[in-house]
Design brief:
This protein has 56 residues and is mainly beta. It is 11% helix and 32% strand. It has a four-stranded antiparallel sheet with strand order 1-2-3-4, with no helix packed on it. Strand 1 and strand 2 form a beta hairpin. The longest helix has 6 residues. The radius of gyration is 11 Å and the shape is globular.
């Protein structure tokens, strides 16, 4: 189930970075500083790719 805009804005930073799963290999990495990164799970012979939107 995809994350909605309201759910993403409601995510608060914690002591350690955490991953919140989206769908089809995407997840949102919530940094302890409050930053949010969209990432995808790496495939075979592929590296992790992240898009940084700072405060989503």
């Amino acid at each position: 189930m995809p994350l909605t805009d309201t759910q993403i804005k409601a995510l608060k930073p914690e002591a350690k970075p955490r991953k919140v799963a989206n769908e089809k290999g995407l997840y949102l990495l919530v940094q302890s500083t409050g930053g949010k990164l969209w990432c995808r799970r790496p495939f075979k012979f592929d590296h992790l790719c992240a898009l940084n939107f700072d405060q989503v």
